[in-house]
Each structure stands twice: as structure tokens, then as C-alpha cells.
Amino acid sequence: MATLKAALEDSTYPGQRRFVIYGLGGSGKTELAIKYAEEYQRNYWGVFFVDATSRKTASRSYLEIANVGGVEPNEKAAKNWLTTQVLPWLLIIDNADDDEVNIEELLPAGTQGCILITSRNPAHKSHGTVGERYLELQAMEAGEANELILKAAEEPCPWPETVIKSASAICHALGFLPLALVHAGKSILLGLCSWAGYLKFYERQVERIRRRRRESGSGRSRSEENSGSIAVFSSYEILYQSLEASQRESFQDAVELLNVFSYLHFQNIRLDILILATTNPLREASVREREAQEAENLQLNVPHPRKTWRHWMRELAARMLGYLDTPPPLPAALRNPDGLSGSVLEGEVHVRLSEALKVLLSRSHIMKQDRLEDRYSMQPLVHKWVRERPDMSTSQQALWCQVAANTLARSILLPPLGDTEDERRTRRELLPHINHVRTCRELIFHRMEENRASRRNKLWPVLNRGFSRHDANELARFSRIYSECGLFHDALELQSKVRSFVNAMLGEDHPLSIKITLVVAGTLWELSRAAEATELQQRAHRICVESLGQDNPISLKVADLLGSALCWKGRWSQSLALHQRTVEGMNTVYGAQHETTLKAVSNLARVYLRYMEWETAAELHHQAWEGMKKQLGETHLDTLICLEDLAMARMRMGEQYLAESHKMMQFVLEQRTKVLGKEQPYTLLAICNLGRVKSAMGQHAEAAKIMSEAVIIAERNLGEDHFGVLAGKTHYAQVLVHLKRFKEAEEILHAVADKPQYRKATDQDGEHPDRIIALWYLIGCLERQGKFAEALETCEGLVNSLQEIGGNGLGPKHKLALMLQREIEKLKGKIDGEVETEEAYVAVPGEI
């Protein structure tokens, strides 16, 4: 400990302070790193942990760090956030054993911070930079080992000579490895064996483990076969079997929880998550009943088409499958056989889980991760051993892996439930557990497939595992975590499987099928795959109108979403017609002040904004904002969207509205930073829009500063071809024009106006509105520099582009078309010398 302290607190070293701990498995590397972090936590602003077992686990650990920092959930953003922290922080990179893991790639750049690396690989010691640079943990000295095992067994002093002699023999047999010694001491403390009899217990376990491995014929890695690991596993097995042998409820619960924990990530196992797995289904059932009643009431306001025989038969088949389904397996402590409800159930489950966790803690099967909160962890070597014990068959592994997955899935609420920031924050912590259980399941299925292949030529048939209703339910819940963590590719993969299953079971026209189709479309939007997303939304809308009628509540919601998509793509006439019809229908079905109607009003206002009808847009946005304030509160994320839209509409209405718009955008930014974090995309959007207002007020330098920082973060987190990044750069370039930084502005505008970037967001015959804006700003930039001929050429090209926007040939009728004609005439006059060139620096296109 003194070696670590001296190295990491060396303030004379100018660079990043790194220290490596290496040694055999079970030698206490992780324990030493954690103990240092606990003892000297006061010296660090924050302590962070990266599981370097593989490159994937390391990246996922950085996602957790990104969530702590309130930055975009990816490894690059997390590392950048660490490097920008002025106060000292400690990063523990644990289990960096695999040669395939490049340590250099895991290190944050720069000179900030202290880093502890633990590894079995001695080659990694080269990464140490301070003090003695590295520390090898070898077997303990005999005296230290004796003291450790005697204290673990809580042997009262003075220690008898016979006990010391037995302790010495045990230490020697266990290779003086700390983890094995602690397990041995706990076995003696719990009365499972005596000091004199422990070695017989231990030797039987060693022989049993080796025999089972020979019988199984399974290959084991070098790390598992070495004598150190055998010593740890054998000493641990004695404790494990004592749990299995007991008939006490708390002991049986402890065994089940331990098996579940082995398929979760070994860190941050939370008691409240386990309790949610029991209480969430009751909460969802209550909401389903309420929604069913609300839907029934809404149907009274609209004509409802009769269901066909096909609909009846599909729903009957789905209900029968539901009745025939066996309940998903869960640990006994999380079941509700007595049908308890509410706080009574929560209280009983809390007591039962707490008793089981106490048993596991007393045997050192788990460790308390946080003194103040109910968070637990497992030693990595033991964590792996539990799920790979010789007595654990592949079918048992599959069962416990599924139990762990069920527990996680039930702790995740489906939308619209679980919408608070606290609930989202809790869910994001589930990501490492979901990734681990899915990885384990893939390995188990692969092993089962190999076993099936070896039996295919035998007499009995082999059943293949299908995709069930429970699988679809689980993947739908897991996909919510991936979406909320910004892992949209992973979310899309799971959602697509769910959609295929639901469509096959219920048909595309079932409300549940439509709902999951819209979820998939939303994820495609997040991935900037706008054309695919809109195609799905159009299909869903067509199916809704045909099967439910256009006034059905589901049809109206789908129409509202489709209208927004078409507006964004530049299909304004179609969007306007859809939104006008939707608002009218929602007023009838929901009422004018319902949250759903107000969102539709706000979406309609956005179409008028595209038509440059500023007053109409502002009036509708104000109506939506006032209503949302009453329904959801002024700080709700949806209310803030309405307020932001209102601010941007009024900004365009004239100088007299700028102060009010500025105040609105400041409020939006403050609230989003507080709730979402400073690097979340909606927060970056608020920064950009605040910058636009500041620029309109003449505060160009301040606007450029905040917008530049936001664009850099957005490009790093989202990618340079993300539509939000392109739009942000466009408006930033316009501010640079006002600052007469023409070269920079022109370079940016040429880049963002490159047409191929927008192809995935437009139809074949369409033009994207954001590109139109970029070209308009480029014309002004060129004109300010006196590049009249180039500006005229761009202007004429923009006239052609405008033909392709708006839908149904509305482009030439747009207000911008008239502005372009005037601009062309003015530029021609300047080229011919008919207009004073001094006007070139004043009469230029403004913001649209």
C-alpha cells in the first residue's frame, strides 16, 4: 500500500501517473487496487473503474463513466471528459490480462489523472510511469499468510500452537494466495471443518475438480489450470457446498442469487434493481388496465371498424399462447406466489433479499461495494468460477443465465413508464449487466449447438430453440437501455427481431405491431437513416387508415409522427395537410388541452416555420407551450421543446422579440444541462440556438465561442456526417460571416452544402431544407467578400434546388423563391456596376 501511495502521490511527475500491479490469479491484485481507492478516496475528486477483461467490456465501462460525466455515451467522449477535469481523479483498469487488449487504447490522453492497472500479464508493467512503476504480487510471506487466515477465521488470541501449526500447513497447501486463504478462514469460522480437518476437505475438493474436468473433457485456459486458480477454486467450493447443503430459506436464496449474480457483471449489483424485478410487473399491470379503459373511452368519440375473422383468430391464438406459456423462471426470493401488492410485497422481498445477501457477505462470496448504498460486487475469479463449476452442466448454465436475463428484463419498464431522470439514470447502470448476460448466453448457445451436432445422427430427435413471446418481451426491454445509452445499432438489432416476431404473430395491422414499427422508425431516425424511417412510418400510416380508420387515436398519432418526418425531409405540403387533419382529429378525440393534441399543434407550427410564416408559427408554438406547462410543468423535456421552438420563431419576428427569445433559450439550456448533461445532443442544440439569438442581438463573438465549442463536441460524439452536426456548422458559419471571418465560413459552408451527404434523408426527387439554408448562407458569405459572380452562380443553382422542395411543385411558390429572384437581380446589377459595391457589405441575405 505504501508503494502505491508514494507512486501515485508523486506531484513532481509532470505527466499522467500510472502504476501497474501484476501477479497470479487470486494474489489479490483487484483487492489491493480497491483497498487503495477506499483508503485514499479523499485524495481524488472521483474514482472510476474499467473492466479490461476484453475490449468490449472496457468500452462498456467507459459508457458508465460517460453517464457520470453527463456526456454523450461513448468511449471517446468519456476519455475526453476525464482529460478535461482539473481536479485529481483515479482510474482503475482491472483484469487487463488478454494479449488482445491494447492498454494504450484504454488510456485517456493528456497528463491528467492517476491510473492503476491490474494484470496477470507481466508485459504490461511497461505502462507504469511513476515511483517503482510496477508491483508484482507474489505468494504472501508465511507470517503474513498465517495472520490473514487466522483473522479471517476470527480465531481468538492468543493463538494456540496447534492452531498456528495447522494454519501454516493450510497456507502452504493453498500457495499463500490471499483469496484462497480468506475462503479457508471463512470455512473454519462457519464451523464447516476444523483447523486440523481442513486439509482433508480441501484435498478432496482438488481431486474432485480435476476429476470432473477430466470427465467433461472440456479445454481450460492456462489461467484456470494453474495451481493458484485450483487453490482458490477448491477453497471456495467448500464454502459453496455448505450453502447448497442447508435447507434454510436464506441459504437456498443465497445459492440462487449467487448463480444469478455470476451472469451479471461482477460489479455494481444493486439491491433496488432486484426489488424492481418484483414490483415492476404490478405497476405495468395497473397501467395496462388504466390504458385499456382510456382507449375504450376514446373509442366512443370515433367510429370503430368491425374486426374481421382474421383479426379475431389472430388475437385468440395470441391469447391461447399466453395461457399456455409457462411463467419465466425467477429466483424464489423474487416471486410473488401469495399475490401480494404494493408496499407489502416490496417490504417482504426486501427482507428476504437482505437475509440472503447477509449470508453471502458472511462467506465472502460477495463484497459490499459501497458502505452507504446497497451495492455489491464479486471477486472476478470467483465470479467466473460460480458459472463454470464442474458440477454445472450446460443445461444448468442455460437455466441460470435465463433467470438472470429475466431478472434484468423485469427491472426495466416499457414506455411510457419510467420517464423520470432518476429512473433513466438507474436503467443506464444496467448496461454492463445486460451485455454480460447476453455474452454468456451466446457462449452457452454455441456450446449447446455443438452438443446438438454431436447427437444429430442418434436415434432421438433434437429440438431447436425457437423465438418466444418471452424472448420478444426481453429484447424490447433491453433495447430501451441500448437506446438510452446511445447504442442505437444494438437497439435496432433487438427491435427488428421483436417487430418480425410480433408481425408474424399478430399481423402488421395489430396496434402492438404498429407501436413497435414506430419504435424501429424512431431508432432509424437516431441513426440518420431518414429515408428508411419515413418509409416505415408511411407504411404504418397506410395500414392504420385501412384497418382502423383515419380518426382512430392510433391512426392520429401515427399521422402526427409521419407529418413531422415529411416536414424534416422537405415535403411541406404533405406535412401541412397531415398535421392540419391530425390536429382537427385530436381536438375531437382528446380535446384541445390534452398533451397529445398540444404536441400535434407544436408539430404543425414547425411546418409554418418552414414556410417562413413566422407569426402563425409563433402563435401556435405559444399555444402549445402554455398548454404543456399546465399539463407537464415548465421544466418537462417536452415543454422545453415547445419553448425552444417558440423562442426561435419569435427571434425571426423582429428586434423587439430578441430579449424575450434570449431569456427563453437561457432557461431551456439551463434545464437541459441540469437534467440531460452538458454534452447530450438536445443540450448542444440549445447551445446552438442560444448562439443564434445572441448573434441576432449583435453579440457575434460570444455566439461564435459557445457555438464553436458545441460543434466540436457534437462532431466528436455524433460524427461529422450527422444531420445535427451539419446544421450546427451551418449556423455557426453564418455567425463567422458576421465576424468577417469569411475564409473559415466559406470553407464550412462549402463542406456542409455537399449534396451527397443528404441523400439518405431525401427522396430521389427531393432536396433537403438544411442544404437550402447552407446554400443561402453561402451566397451571403460570397457576396460579403465581393465574389459576385460566384455568388450569382450559387444563387442560380439554388433556384434549381428549390424546384425540388416542398412537394407538389410548391418550391417556386415559397417565399424564399421571391427572395432569390431579388438577390439574382441585385447580384447582376453589382456585376454590371449598376449597384454601388458598398451595398455588397450591407444588402446581403440574412438568416431564414
UniProtKB/TrEMBL annotation:
InterPro entries: NLR-like, P-loop_NTPase, TPR-like_helical_dom_sf. It comes from the Eukaryota. Transmembrane segments: none annotated. Pfam families: TPR_10, TPR_12. This is TPR-like protein. It comes from Canariomyces notabilis.
